[in-house]
Design a protein that fits this description.
two-stranded antiparallel sheet, alpha+beta, three-stranded antiparallel beta sheet
Length: 109
C-alpha cells in the first residue's frame, strides 16, 4: 500500500477527526511507532497510523512519555496491531485496537 492510500484510509477510519481531542481541522496522520525507531516496517500499516490535529500531534511528539501509556507512541518491541490506544468515540474516549484492514476493535470504555 502506498503512503497516500494508507493516509487516506486512516483518515476515513478516523472520520477525519483527531482521535485524541476530536478536532476536525489541520489534521496529520501520525505514526504510532516512529519510522526512525523501527517504524519503517510498519509505516503504512493502518494499525500504526492514527489521525491527530496538529496541536495534539505536536504535543505527542514533544512529550512521548505521556503519549506511550495512551498508545499514541510505541516502542520498538510493540506491535501496533496488538497495542491498544485510547481514542475518541461519540460519547468520549475508549480503548481500541487499530486493525490493518482499516477497522477498529472496541476493547473497553
Amino acid at each position: 500500500m502506498t503512503w497516500e492510500e494508507a493516509k487516506r484510509q486512516a483518515l476515513l477510519r478516523d472520520y477525519h477527526r483527531c482521535q485524541r481531542c476530536g478536532a476536525h481541522d489541520v489534521l496529520d496522520v501520525h505514526h504510532r511507532r516512529a519510522r526512525g525507531m523501527g517504524g519503517t516496517q510498519t509505516k503504512d500499516r493502518l494499525s500504526n497510523l492514527v489521525t491527530l490535529c496538529r496541536a495534539c500531534h505536536d504535543s505527542i511528539e514533544a512529550h512521548p512519555d505521556l503519549a506511550r501509556p495512551l498508545g499514541y507512541r510505541l516502542d520498538l518491541d510493540q506491535d501496533p496491531a496488538t497495542t491498544e490506544i485510547k481514542a475518541r468515540t461519540v460519547n468520549g474516549t475508549a480503548w481500541w485496537l487499530l486493525n490493518d484492514d482499516g477497522s477498529m476493535t472496541w476493547l473497553r470504555a
